[in-house]
Amino acid sequence: MTIRARRVKRKPPRISYEEFRTAVTGSECCAGAAGEMMTELAVRIARELPGTEPAAMLDQLLGSQENVPVHGVWHHVLVGELLLVALRNAGCPISEELIDEVIDRGRQIPGGSCGFLGTCGALAGAASAYAILLGSTPVATDARERLLVFHARLQTRLAEIGGSRCCKKSSYVALELARDAFAAIGFELSEEHFTGRCSYCADNDTCDGEECPYWPGG
Questions:
Q1: Cβ pair 46, 57 in contact under 8 A
Q2: How far apart are the first and last CA of the chain?
Q3: How confident is the model at residue 8, as a pLDDT?
């Protein structure tokens, strides 16, 4: 299957990082220059990671860096990027241009979109990767419909879990549901175990504890 890359011009977020920092107390970790720097570092590391298990790759990446905030806009980019990198590593026809494109799309997702726009950035990152694999565009018919159904499934699952903001929870939802959706269109990801896998609880002051399916021992 040949996938054609379509270059996307990067646009500034409609909700600026300054507005986000002002609106949400304690969210400086993913705002401004610090968030941009962490995103750039994460993107470079993610691109070179071996492996075909995107959730394990995410944990490896974030666990290898000291003092990484538990929340941040880098999740918007990493989820989609790691999905495509894992597929590339598994031998799927994923070019460097396609990885560039999913990174560009992830960067366009504004901080705080989960609470301001009703769509979580990590979920949108996974949907971006799925859109690229489908070849979906705003004027497509079947591919656009499948993309909307997939994104709705992601949103529904996260809403069902509920609770407070947690970028790791959102990322795990996205990566867990992506596996079956991607396999259905011919892109196989390695099977991963998600229940109880989270190791970030102690770093998250708003962790939902036992109410979260990813809480260790859950």
A1: yes
A2: 39
A3: 39
